[in-house]
Amino acid sequence: MVQQNQKPRIFSGIQPTGRLHLGNYTGALSQWVVNQDQNDGIYCIVDLHALTALHSRTIVPIVEQVRQTAALLVACGLDPERSSIFVQSHISAHAELAWILNCLTPVGWLERMTQYKAKAAQPASATAGLLTYPVLQAADILLYRANFVPVGEDQKQHIELTAELARRFNRLFGETFVIPRPLIRTAGARIMGLDDPSIKMSKSLAEDRKSHVIGLSDPPDLIRRTIMEAVTDSGFETRFERASPGVKNLLTIFEALSQRPRPEIESHFAGKSYQVLKGEVADLVIAVLRPIRERYLNLVDDPGWLDQMLRHGAQKVSPIAISTLDQVKKLTGIERPQPGLQTIARSEGVC
Ligand code: TYM
C-alpha cells in the first residue's frame, strides 16, 4: 500500500548483457522515464543476474557492460537526480536477502518458471544460479518495499512469484514486505525478433543473428536496413488481429512508439504495401532513437562520470536495503553483528 503523501515507489532492473534493444525500450525503459517527479524510482543494473551466463561468456568484462547500460539508461531519459540508478553487486543486501528467501522457496515454484524451462533446455545453462534467479529478483524488489514494478510481459511470472514469496514471509513472520504489482504496457510489452517473429526480441540472440534486434544505439542506416529486411508475408493485411506475426510485430512497434490508437493506425496503413509500412516504421524508430544515440555516445566516453553517478545511486538507496535486511534478520533470528565484532573476529582468525 502507498502511504498518504508518499510517492509510489517504483523498482525495476535490467541485465547489463550485450546491446539493449527496442523491446527493452518499449517494454520497460519507456515506462521508467515518465512521471519521474511523481514517483520514487529506483533502477538497478543487475550484474549478479548476468552471471547466470558466466559458463558461456566470451570474456567481455561485465563492468564495461554495466557502464554502457548506465549510459543508455541516462540517454533514454532517466535523470539520476530524480531517480536512483545503481548496480546490484554494489549493495550486498541483495545476495543476503536472496539466500534467506531461497530457504523459504519450494523448488517446485522455481521449476515451473517458463524462463527457467526455456533456458534449462540447454544442459550447460541449467545451473543452480539459473534455477534460483527469480529469488534474487524477488530480493531486489522486496528490499526496497516497491509498490510497482514496470516490466515487459516476459517478467510477469517472476513478479507474481515475488508477491507470493512476500505473502509467505508475511504470514510466517508478520507484515514485513510490501506486495509489489507489475506494470505492463498494453502496447510494446512483447516485441518479437525481426528475423523470426515467433521468438521474443532478445539480447542474447543479438550476438549471432545480425537482423534480429534493433539496438538502442544503432546508427540510422543499420536500423533502416534491419527493418526493411524484417520477415513479413506475401499479402497486404495490416489489421492487428489478422496480420501475420511479422507484420503484427511491425504494427506493434509503430503503436508503441507513436502512441496512436489502433483503429487510426489500421486506417492509416489500409491498402498500403508492406514496403510503405516498413519505411514508416523505420522513420519513426530512427526519429525516437536518434537523440538517444547522440546522448549515449557523449556519456559513454566519460567512465569517471558514470562510475560516480552509480556510486551516488547506491549511496542514496542502500539505507533502505539495509533497514529491510536488518528487520528480516531480526525476524528470522540472525542479528546483525555489533559494530566492530566482525573486525575482532577477523583479527582472531575466526572468520
Ligand atoms: P532483461 O534485462 O531481460 O530485460 C529488461 C526489461 O526489458 C523487458 N524486455 C522486453 N520487453 C518487450 N519486448 C521484449 N522483446 C523484451 N525483452 C526484454 C523485460 O521484460 C524487462 O522489463 N529478470 C529481469 C531483470 C531483473 C528485474 C529485477 C526486473 C532483475 N531484477 C527486479 C524487475 C525487477 C531481466 O532479465 O530483464
Structural notes for this entry:
There is one protein chain. By secondary structure, the chain is mainly α. Helix content is 52%, strand content 6%. It has 16 helices and five strands. The strands form two sheets. The chain has a three-stranded parallel β-sheet, with helices on both faces. A two-stranded parallel sheet has the order 4-5. β1 (9-14), α1 (22-32) and β2 form a beta-alpha-beta unit. α4 (93-102) runs parallel beside α15. The longest helix is centred in the last third of the chain and has 30 residues, at 303-332. Mean pLDDT is 93; it is low at 343-351. Bound molecules: tryptophanyl-5'AMP. Tryptophanyl-5'AMP binds next to β1, α1 and α8.
List keywords for this structure.
single chain; mainly alpha; two-stranded parallel ribbon; 5 strands; disordered C terminus; binds tryptophanyl-5'AMP
